[in-house]
Amino acid sequence: MKEKTGKERRLKPRFNAELPCDLSPGGGQLLSPDDRLECRTRDLSESGVGVVAGSIYVGYTCVVDEGCALRLRLALPAGEIEMEATSAHYLRLDSGDEQPVYLIGLRISSMSEEDWTLYLNYLDELSAAEG
């Protein structure tokens, strides 16, 4: 039997989108305003966000540690939203001889109802643009 691809296994469709965002430790662990990892989205879905970043650390916190609570601020065209997330996977994208570049897959844990509505509306726009 043929093994399913990642796209076939996914319950929710992913949409390509490059938006500015930043990651910080969740649960009120932010020690200073500089404790943020600047990144950009690569893809979005109802259940997760793929981000590209130059590090996997915010201060001393490794954002890809299993169970690490994270806060993602995302600049949508309709306004900035925040969500709680955890790392699902990561992959180093560069060849090792330049600045590091990581793809970090985040699983959405929660967000406010207002932010969820903005997020779903944006996913609908992306879906319509692809269709």
What topology does this entry show?
Elements (H helix, E strand, L loop, with lengths): L5 H4 L5 E2 L3 E6 L11 E8 L3 E6 L3 E2 L2 E2 L6 E8 L2 E14 L9 E9 L2 H18 L1
Antiparallel strand pairs: 1-3, 2-3, 2-7, 3-4, 4-9, 5-6, 7-8, 8-9
What does this structure look like?
A 6-stranded antiparallel barrel has the order 2-3-4-9-8-7. It has a two-stranded antiparallel ribbon with strand order 5-6. The longest helix has 18 residues, at 113-130. It has helices spanning 6-9, 113-130, and strands spanning 15-16, 20-25, 37-44, 48-53, 57-58, 61-62, 69-76, 79-92, 102-110. Helix content is 17%, strand content 44%. It is of the alpha+beta class and 131 residues long. The protein has one domain (12-130): Beta Barrel (Thrombin, subunit H). The mean pLDDT is 88.
**In what range is the share of β-strand residues?**
35-45%
CATH-defined topology: Thrombin, subunit H
Helical segment tally?
Answer: 2
Low-confidence stretches: none
* Arrangement of strands in the largest sheet: 2-3-4-9-8-7
CATH superfamily: predicted glycosyltransferase like domains
